[in-house]
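User: Could you check the structure of this?
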Amino acid sequence: MTLSWKLVVDSTDAPALAEFWGAALGYEVEDPTALIDSLLAAGHLPAAAVLERDGRKLFRGYSAVRHPEDPYDPASGVGKGRRILFQSVPEPKQGKNRLHIDVHSDGELDAVVERLEKLGATRVEEQDQGPAGHWWVMRDPEGNEFCVA
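Assistant: Sure, the predicted structure tokens are below.
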């Protein structure tokens, strides 16, 4: 049996980190406005649980990105394929990630690294292993490590 999954990333500012990764990967930031409006209208969600950002209503503390070609539920805006959910947590990042994202540049490593820097990422260390690979270790705006190969 094959299972569905999503990657969940703890953050201090879920909407901001979702916007970074949406732009970095070319993913769409999910828009749960229709679902939130229906929950608010039915009295199932308090207004304090909602955040407005860039014309979208979000569940406070949560924001997600999804691959633009994957299916999604139009009623909720939730992706049904490749998806990353960012959740705000009170504690700061503690040490090195045990799991990270690898971004593949399709041979345009320098251009992709420069574009990611303009979005708010920082370079950490270049790795050149010859025939085994060439990549950059980078950090997203909240310090989460990822690689660009």
